[in-house]
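To fix ideas at the outset, we first show an illustrative case, written as a sequence plus integers encoding its fold:
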Amino acid sequence: DPSAFPVSEALSLYGLEHAPSLNAPERIGYAIAALLPFWGNSMVAHVTQATCRAYGAQRGVSDGTLRKELGVLRAAINYAHRHGRITHAPYVFLPEKPQGRERWLTKGEAARLLNAARTARGDVRLYLPLFILIGLYTGARKGAILSLRWPQIDFARKRIDFNEPGRKRTSKGRPVLPIPSRLLTFLKLARKRGTDLGYVIHHNGAQIADIGDGKSGSFGAACRRAGIEDVTPHTLRHTCGTWMAQTGV
């Protein structure tokens, strides 16, 4: 009965058995890590519209992030049901899908955001500016940038291969892109602080699980200091495409 089956067990089952077969299992891990503090002591039957809303209020992140995390919770519960671990699967309520926005940064906003990242406290100023620059110059997705390692950057040929070694190719297909000369300079400087096989964006050598969004994390804090709103890491991707279209590149 769902009232006797812990949410933590459903998440563990899904993470250990199903996530490794996905293209980006680390995303499932990040979502599970976010879900456990709230749901870890609950039974599956306790998942209701009210508790899903309470989770969203406690997390304080964007609706897009909530949809991803609660979507993993829904998938985990459904997985447990399909594999005979629970008699039925309670419905997991997700926030409404955010409408697509045509938000992109002006060059002035981009400069303010970079300045805010460079003046951040602690080690944030070592990795956040580079994350923003890679996003602006390549239009790569947040996950692709955070999982990027130095062997994927060919300085001799001036190319970045956003496909991780061994990663399954999908219809979205992470691209192999030329490195603009200005970005190349920043990458060379950052390379001196890195290791041969390490992550390009890292904190003391460790991979950064999530850079945040427009409301949370180091990225959100930089947005607030820069005085810009309605911006997420995806905005960098849209900005890159907009600038390229405007310049005819």
Notes: Residues 138 and 240 are 7 Å apart (CA to CA). The beta strands are 153-154, 159-161, 176-178, 202-203, 206-207. The mean pLDDT is 88. The first helix runs from residue 7 to 18.
